[in-house]
Design goal:
Elements: E1 3-9, E2 14-21, H1 23-32, H2 40-60, E3 64-71, E4 76-83, E5 88-95, H3 105-109, E6 116-123, E7 133-138, H4 150-162, E8 166-172, E9 177-184, E10 193-194, E11 199-200, H5 202-219, H6 223-228, H7 231-239, E12 244-246, E13 253-254, H8 260-270, H9 272-282, E14 285-288, E15 295-298, H10 300-306
Parallel strand pairs: 5-13
Antiparallel strand pairs: 1-2, 1-12, 2-9, 3-4, 3-6, 4-5, 6-7, 8-9, 10-11, 14-15
Amino acid sequence: MSELVKFLFEGLPVRGMLVRLTDGWQEVLRRRAGRAGDTPEVRVLLGEMAAAGVLMQANIKFNGALVLQVHGDGPVKLAVAEVQPELSFRTTATVVGEVPAGAKLESLVNVHGQGRCAITLDPKDRLPGQQPYQGVVPLHGDRREPLQEVAQVLEHYMLQSEQLDTRLVLAANDDVAAGLLIQRLPVEGEGNLEGQGGRRNEDEIGLNEAFNRIAMLAATLTKEELLALEPAKILHRLFWEETLRVFEPQRPRFACTCSRERVRNMLRGLGREESDSILAERGEIEVGCEFCGLQYRFDPVDVGEMFTPPQDQPPSSRAVQ
């Protein structure tokens, strides 16, 4: 089963998480099979984004949806991973061109350097007028060089937006999507300077060195190991000299938040005239969910009920889908 394992380094302001998406990730791929642009390169991109999204949602404990998006001017116009507070996830991609074999992030999304990564936090219970929070970063580093890995982009995002040193290792294939996150936690009073020479606090330097050591160990983990090994084996392989506090695993799963009522609301937003125009052309309105592939169909009676006030609707014996 899919699992996410959180752990702390005893005595150090460093935390970590490991996620392995197995059954849930395979369900995503089963539903995507046969779609336009369903190539190994796109599947790897979506798998790494799904693993990263689960790690980030578990890291912030946000009561709402975390939506990770990359978009640009490559054959992949948009790739999305959405994760709910209970760690249910879904992904999709819009592919409009031929995907080169072996393509990395630059060739997939950032061909002319205009690609962006956006992270949106959408609260479950929004207050009136409240807008989702969104942070956006380009798909290049401080030296303006294109980044080739989703992990590099998100490390850059966390440093820019949260001022938190983060190390990520992500990997995906057709069986597993997995990720390792290591993050340095802020310490109260950190950043104070001592002495007229501005010498940094020795404890702070020691904490930085500890994080750098752990981050270097994490960087030795290969994608192949991340995909093949269970979390307990990975933690022992990397951090056998450290003292870890490991918590009970959580169970991420695939789930889609689409519903017939949501589609009804979307059609109401289009308006009666637009809906009737589609009916006249096609005889029914069919809307497919980009995430799970479920198809919702509305015939003229459905559309009529949609735009008729409840008090004016006659009793109906029609079965409701």
